[in-house]
User: What shape does this take?
Amino acid sequence: MRPCCMRTSAATPTRLLSWSRGIKIECRPNADQRAALVLVDMEGYSVEEAAEILGCPGTIKSGCARGRARLLPLLIRLKAEADS
Assistant: This one.
């Protein structure tokens, strides 16, 4: 297993999750997308490793892509808040 490679920033997971409660449901990744995003983008696992952990080969890349697309409005707003 790889160590967590998450970087500290203004958009911490706690801040991201607390702010996300106020956004429209269609902007939130579903549970499968969140799991893929956490393993690949936050924990640093490869797509293949994440697929093995989650037991869903072939869906990790698309799950991450869809999850990132759904998070984009949230991330844009967080960046604007951090820059102001």
About this structure: The radius of gyration is 13 Å. The CA atoms of residues 39 and 45 lie 6 Å apart. The helical segments are 13-20, 31-42, 47-54, 60-83.
